[in-house]
Each structure stands twice: as structure tokens, then as C-alpha cells.
Description:
Number of strands: 5
Number of helices: 4
Distance between the termini: 19 Å
Helix content: 25-40%
Amino acid sequence: xxxxxxxxxxxxxxxxxxxxxxxxxxxxxxxxxxxxxxxxxxxxxxxxxxxxxxxxxxxxxxxxxxxxxxxxxxxxxxxxxxxxxxxxxxxxxxxxxxxxxxxxxxxxxxxxxxxxxxxxxxxxxxxxxx
Length: 130
């Protein structure tokens, strides 16, 4: 993981890709998490090894995302960090971060997918517990 900033697109993509299964690996004990745009199956050993880094990245999101803070926030606002800086402009990268968070049990959607159309932009609100 890059040392410059914990939450940055490079770190999210690098960890996401490292947690995916590689050719020839046994996928029997996979961990599946569904995002807004994709579903991913992760290698549990590498996912567990990256859990502290994933938690650190989730902790950099605005306090409104925290269960103990605002209780959850729109996916659309996840491009900003808790310091008010835009850390990414790519929805795919934000989705990857939340998929990793869901896979380790530290993020969840506030409503089922069938209800997302009720939210602004038709995207869910997400809550994190870090």
C-alpha cells in the first residue's frame, strides 16, 4: 500500500485486485460481496491479510458514513475524504472500496437494492463501522 495517503485510488485498486482469486486457486472458500456495479469473489486469506488496510481506508471517509457518526451517507459523496478532499473521481473505485468493506463486514447498504431508486441519483446510502 502506498505510504503517501491511506485512502487513494491506487491503494483501493491494488488491494481489490490482490484480494481477487488468481488462476488456478481453489475458490471453495470464497467470500462474495456485491457492489453497485459489480459482484466480486475474494480469496479469504488475502482479504483477511488486508483487513487493517481496508479498515484504515474506510476510516478516512467522512464521519457521516460511520454508524457512530451520521449513520450512513449517499454513495455519491464517497469521493470525498473526511478532510474535505476529493480522493477519487471514479465511481468504480468507490464501489471497489465499499465491496472490500462489505466483504470484511465493515460496510453495508442501509436499504435493499430494490429500494435504491428512492434515494437521490438512484444509488444507496452506505454505512461503515470502523
